[in-house]
Design brief:
Chains A, B: Its cofactor is FAD. Chains A, B: Keywords: FAD, Flavoprotein, Oxidoreductase. Chains A, B: Pfam families: FAD-oxidase_C, FAD_binding_4. Chains A, B: InterPro entries: FAD-bd_oxidored_4_C, FAD-bd_PCMH, FAD-bd_PCMH-like_sf, FAD-bd_PCMH_sub2, FAD-linked_Oxase-like_C, FAD-linked_OxidoTrans_Type4, Oxid_FAD_bind_N, Vanillyl_alc_oxidase_C-sub2. Chains A, B: This is FAD-linked oxidase. The structure is a homodimer. The first copy, chain A, is of the alpha+beta class and about 450 residues long. Chain A folds into three domains: about 90 residues, 2-Layer Sandwich (Uridine Diphospho-n-acetylenolpyruvylglucosamine Reductase, domain 2), CATH 3.30.43; about 120 residues, Uridine Diphospho-n-acetylenolpyruvylglucosamine Reductase, domain 3; about 190 residues, Vanillyl-alcohol Oxidase, Chain A, domain 3 (3-Layer(aba) Sandwich), CATH 3.40.462.10. Chain A contains 15 helices and 18 strands. In chain A, the strands form four sheets. A seven-stranded antiparallel β-sheet of chain A has the order 15-12-14-13-17-18-16, sandwiched between helices. A five-stranded antiparallel β-sheet of chain A has the order 5-6-10-8-9. Chain A has a four-stranded mixed β-sheet with strand order 1-2-4-3. Chain A is globular. Chain A starts with a helix and ends in a 12-residue tail after the last helix.
């Protein structure tokens, strides 16, 4: 079967685009999520054209072989993990930027274009592609679309979904379908474009995307505010949002995260800091916005407020946030990063709850959060060599998701379901929701060949 | 059958919520679209609770009676038109605003809430619900969701879809499903929320919506610019957008529309005006933005540029735009309003083409456009008593849609497909697209009871 598969794949793909050497294909077995099962692919294919992708899907349908689409494998939910005997369909070689239009504020790209490559290319036209997941230097637009990626900018600019106007998609049976539009608006039929965004490669293969762009905003200025309690920091966040401010970034790091960053990078943050808030504005007069927000932080009890005066100082203040995950990884060697999003009015309760969960399980759990969105990343630090600690890490992770749901939130703000959270999806959306999601899946992929075993 | 239907409906609805008198129910037979077939409903139901909606849908499924959901019937595509023997399910009595949260910037509403009612209610909290279809004083949020409504604000604030975070939906069989979230971000499973937005009541009955809100922006200031040709006006639009400006409104009226408004309201616009551009900014310093945009208009050949100095002057300048459709209706008594959206870089070609089409068919066709979005409303003026003119109107309408598609646009930017454009949907999205749209429909509505005969 496998030999037949490879021979058939090679009929429509150049030899170098079909990889079968296990030493090579093993590199394609999983993304960056911890603790997610990953199988051994029968082959990895690296098509360069839409026609080649269609050939792969026709072959897969003919032989009933599952297909796992992949971008840069920077995902954090195992959505790109191989299953045994599957075809891994890597889109990274389809990496052309086909069009950039400053008048229409659109770009047309292939799925393998790296986020940062697109961001820099459009910047040359005075344009801005906002979605900025932490992995933006390596992750691909196709992966961003598959996972509906977020990032630091979302509090002002929203998530990937809001920038996808239209798609070309190769369906499970190899047919090509166009969805959406190239125009600013359009309501012709069901919004299948949005259905594909965040579908984790389970409905079809995105081979081209029309993306919306924004004008390049002014350079943002950052303010850092230190608080004696996470509750005071959350009060400040609520005051900022209730006050009608529109920050371009609003990030929170808890005590554990601040300490880990201090330990790693000796940034000299005071030991009394229980929470560090970072706010940024890319408005015409960011200094005025920082002053207003600084005053709200002080009113909420900030012990220190440091507004940057220029881009260099801003970058320095953001360093602490950028180092957060690395610093937390250094605590115990391994982390399990969660992605629970709650209404921002519930952020303080979420942080309190995570602290209680850490104490209950005897674990270090650091939280950094896209606070303006209520999107927390509680990060469980543990020693992978200690099975009991591993078990407690997994249990605490579940308890954190349960807390998020209890607070009216979602188990995933931006990382997705993949294999990591598929037992939890039903708890969030209920049995009717799961049934209808499965019905949609069956409509597009009747033989269940596209990324099976993910999502539900 | 009909008697049985009414008796069954009355088992779960108060007597006054089931209307069967033809003199009364005939008022519910159609929306505001011209030339769309409309049938005679067997009954009109006006539920006040989710449970009552579920009862209606269970009854409809049991008896296999089609259901046409309705809001305020201000739609322009016939999507809310009754079919013979159907149940018209009017959601207008479910009109409660359930929550408004300034911290979370969300509102939770029932579908029958009128757009303007919500807009005013959230304004009291310093919040802003941007979607502003022309019918905003009467149209309902449920209708806006069903048709994915746009409006004047979209060039800056986007369309209804971008403000719908989560839905409660009664499915065809009466089961209740929740989609989406209450949080700023969330990617748990397929985005069924967006699938329902713009689905024209064909997938389920929206009974509750969680909406995203924005902070109330500063009062906008408006600039009017007159041009000697529509091409010069389109050049100005391209220059404004290419220049990175973010107007809160960017509207264009062609010569025919300007003349019609002049004739109706004696606004004293010069007879040499071939195009009138209106731009607005709700930024912290709108006067500065108007000055910059005014300079771009002059560079593009504007014959006169009039920036408003305050809200009252701004309102005066917008009067011309607000009167446009009424004025065009006065030309020949009847209009057929189209809704073709093209990439804004193609706007000049679209306007030229519509003028050619008007000449070809010997018709007056005025165009006003949400120019910043490339969303044109070519409005065919004709005498309904003249059958030949009616036929030419319909033919010109089709030719305008064909032109829009040829220019890379869509046949509907914001009005939807309904019955008016269903022959055209397939031309836009192709046979594979239609097949997959039908598959999605079948997944949610296997007996095809929800708004049958609409969309495709």
């Amino acid at each position: 079967m496998s030999r037949n598969l490879v021979a058939l794949l090679q009929e429509g793909l150049p030899a170098e685009a079909v990889l079968t050497d296990p030493d090579v294909t093993s590199a394609y077995s999983h993304d960056m999520a911890s603790f997610c099962e990953a199988g051994v692919p029968a082959a990895v294919v690296l098509p360069r054209t839409v026609g080649q992708v269609q050939h792969v899907m026709r072959t897969a349908t003919e032989l009933r072989v599952p297909v796992v689409p992949q971008g840069a494998r920077t995902g954090l939910s195992g959505a790109a993990n191989a299953s045994d005997g599957c075809i891994v369909l890597s889109l990274v070689k389809m990496d052309r930027i086909l069009e950039i239009s400053p008048v229409d504020r659109t770009a047309v790209v292939e799925p393998g274009v790296v986020n940062a490559t697109l961001s820099r290319a459009v910047a040359e036209y005075g344009l801005h592609y906002p979605p900025d997941p932490s992995s933006w230097e390596t992750c691909t637009i196709g992966g961003n679309i598959g996972t509906a990626s977020g990032g630091l900018c979302c509090v002002k600019y929203g998530v990937t979904a809001e920038y996808v106007l239209g798609l070309d998609v190769v369906l499970a049976d190899g047919r090509l379908m166009s969805t959406g539009r190239r125009t600013a608006k359009g309501v012709a039929g069901y919004d299948l474009t949005r259905l594909f965004v965040g579908s984790e490669g389970s409905l079809g293969i995105v081979v081209r995307a029309v993306l919306a762009l924004k004008p390049q905003p002014p350079q943002q200025l950052v303010l850092a505010a230190e608080f004696g309690s996470s509750r005071a920091a959350c009060d400040a966040i609520c005051a900022i949002m209730e006050g009608g401010h529109v920050p371009s970034l609003l990030e929170l790091m808890d005590r554990t995260t601040v300490k880990a960053v201090n330990d790693l990078a000796h940034m000299g943050l005071p030991e009394t800091t229980e929470a560090l808030l970072l706010a940024a504005f890319d408005t015409p007069d960011p200094a005025a916005d920082l002053a207003a927000v600084g005053a709200l932080c002080e009113a909420a009890g900030a012990t220190q407020v440091v507004p940057a005066e220029d881009a260099a100082e801003s970058e320095l203040l953001l360093q602490a946030r950028r180092l957060a995950l690395t610093a937390l990884e250094a605590v115990k060697g391994t982390t399990m990063i969660d992605d629970v999003c709650v209404p921002r009015s519930k952020l303080a309760e979420m942080l309190d709850g995570v602290e209680r969960i850490g104490e209950k399980y005897g674990l270090t759990i650091g939280v950094c959060a896209h606070a303006g969105d209520g999107n927390t990343h509680p990060t469980v630090c543990f020693d992978v060599a200690d099975p009991d600690e591993g078990r407690r890490a997994r249990e605490s992770f579940d308890e954190i998701m349960a807390l998020g749901l209890e607070l009216g939130g979602t188990i995933t703000g931006e990382h997705g379901i993949g294999v990591l959270k598929k037992e939890w999806l039903a708890r969030e959306i209920g049995p009717v929701g799961v049934e209808m999601q499965r019905a949609v899946k069956a409509a597009f992929d009747p033989h269940s060949l596209l990324n099976p075993g993910k999502l539900f």
